[in-house]
Predict the 3D structure of the following.
Amino acid sequence: MELESAKAIGMALAAGLGVIGPGIGIGLIGAKAMESIGRNPEASGKIVSNMIIAIAFAEALGILALVVAFIIKGL
Amino acid sequence: MTQDIANNVLESPTAHSSEVVEHAAVAVHDTGIHIMPLAAERLGDFHGIPINNTLITSWAVMLILITLAFFVGRSIKMVPGKVQLIFETIIDFVYEYMTETFEDRKLARIFLPLVLTLFLFIFFANSLQFTPGIGSIGIWQDDTLVPLFRSVNTDLNVTLALALISFIIIELTGMFKLGLFAYAGKFISFKSPLAFIVGIIELGSELVRIVSFSFRLFGNILAGEVLIAVVAYFVPYVLPSTLMGFELFIGFVQAGIFALLTLLFIKLAVIEPH
């Protein structure tokens, strides 16, 4: 297999598989946040700001996978 | 690949082979989208220190911050004007939040400048991403356009430097507050084999913080820039500006996350080992 095609496949796999986990994670965080806002609408400001922080953590891992994909392709 | 095509064309016995080589070279070179390279482009040298385009942009950010600080700080009144009010709100909010986290007003006062500077620098650097001129004004270096300015946090060197600043300050705070041996005892403890293993894992997690700090910021901003470049190629109207608005929000959130995490880890470093 040529190096160029191997790099392309590697980049696609790294990016694609790498964002499955964070995607599920962010969905779960959002779901729990929605549920707790439903239970306690007054605390929604605090809940949303803490949710954004938790989402930034989960997203960092997805972005890490993306950066690895870029490095593989040799951008 | 370019070389193969050029060679094939050169070997054909046509009279205008040189012209055809020119066209082949240009045609093959000009396919694809011009996305920014991973490393920041080097524009010059200062006695051996490379001057990158991100360095020039960070000078611009520093100039903006220092000018703002100078002009706002020069005329502080008891009844604040609008600009002074904005900065007072920011400082007040961050100070209250830090006092709540630290439960100690003196400690919050000591670290307020660090946390606020990290936040303001990263926030202004990210907000400056989409001003016209950044990424488009440049000089030609052997037939590619090298931009004079480039978004500051798309350079891993910058984010790594910020992460190292945070890391060193976190470690030094822990050492000064608890004493060198007590702080080292948190990570390398001989009380029991389990405590030893947990200590080593804690040490590893401290070091991984550098990587996670730098790559979180770097990856978010770089991915945003690449996204805008790719989308502008396919859907040039309306959609890029919507995504730019989203990227500005992400820039704000990432600045807040960086400052917040530095704050939280300083808090973790000064608690007594149990």
Observations:
- Chain B has one domain: 51-141+154-270.
- Chain B touches chain A at residues 1, 35, 37-38, 212, 215-216, 218-220, 222-223, 226, 253-254, 257, 260 (CB under 8 Å).
- Strands of chain B lie at 42-46, 49-52, 138-141, 144-147.
- The CA atoms of residues 25 and 31 of chain B lie 11 Å apart.
